[in-house]
Task: structure prediction
Amino acid sequence: DTEVTQTPKHLVMGMTNKKSLKCEQHMGHRAMYWYKQKAKKPPELMFVYSYEKLSINESVPSRFSPECPNSSLLNLHLHALQPEDSALYLCASSQPWVQSTDTQYFGPGTRLTVL
Amino acid sequence: GESVGLHLPTLSVQEGDNSIINCAYSNSASDYFIWYKQESGKGPQFIIDIRSNMDKRQGQRVTVLLNKTVKHLSLQIAATQPGDSAVYFCAENPSGYSTLTFGKGTMLLVSP
Result:
């Protein structure tokens, strides 16, 4: 099973709202990722968790706050977002990169619209 | 034929044709490469991967070719079907880093 699940599928929020995106995998992977993807563009890496610890933050604004409660779950907490944050948010997982050969498997994404 | 639009290069083919999607990668230290397929409204789906110690790898109807001399990667799809219509991304992993660098993507349109 190579499934990564994400909820919700769609989310509309105002600029003053607080919401969370959720991601789950049961492949035993110990690395999890958040990406942001704009239309007709490649995914852009936001955060990497390895063994439940944040290992990479690609200079993401603090209005995005990631959390990894356990090895299967990854959350992205959203607060005071801007309309330009509207995008498809993708979660991925893999084995931690040992010899740079472990594939990242992606979830279906959450389509976020900020009004 | 192939065209470069405002945002995304597009390759248009007829059903049954063979398709070749190309990708130029940037980092000569990259030692692992992946092709992903992304259909509209979905997340990227793994298609095939290749390590830098290989120059060719075959899957079911797909073949990836790697030319390290010119830093070029290609994806060949045999007997292309309408269900192959999607955006295809190549991705590279620089050795020793736990991240992927994605190419700009190519949209494949298959006409029946």
About this structure: The first strand of chain A starts at residue 4 and ends at 7. Chain A touches chain B through 26 residues (CB under 8 Å). The mean pLDDT of chain A is 92.
